[in-house]
Amino acid sequence: LVHRSMALMATTSLAAKGRDEVALAEHDEIVSGIEARNPEAAGAALKTHISKAFVTRLKLDSGEVDSTL
């Protein structure tokens, strides 16, 4: 699921202005959960990250969000 989601959203969600910084912070939160050996926190952070990337992609496709491309 994670791999498929990443393949579908990576290029378009990162094309949104400011998404790179937001994604980096989300990645930090995922890693923090892993480092703390807290699978619930890591999983929740991952789900949030994927959801935000998906919403960003939808907004890019509809023109609601500016692209950096």
Automatic annotation (TrEMBL):
<protein>
    <submittedName>
        <fullName>GntR family transcriptional regulator</fullName>
    </submittedName>
</protein>
<dbReference type="InterPro" id="IPR011711">
    <property type="entry name" value="GntR_C"/>
</dbReference>
<dbReference type="Pfam" id="PF07729">
    <property type="entry name" value="FCD"/>
</dbReference>
<dbReference type="GO" id="GO:0003677">
    <property type="term" value="F:DNA binding"/>
</dbReference>
<dbReference type="InterPro" id="IPR008920">
    <property type="entry name" value="TF_FadR/GntR_C"/>
</dbReference>
<keyword id="KW-0238">DNA-binding</keyword>
<keyword id="KW-0805">Transcription regulation</keyword>
<keyword id="KW-0804">Transcription</keyword>
<feature type="domain" description="GntR C-terminal">
    <location>
        <begin position="3"/>
        <end position="51"/>
    </location>
</feature>
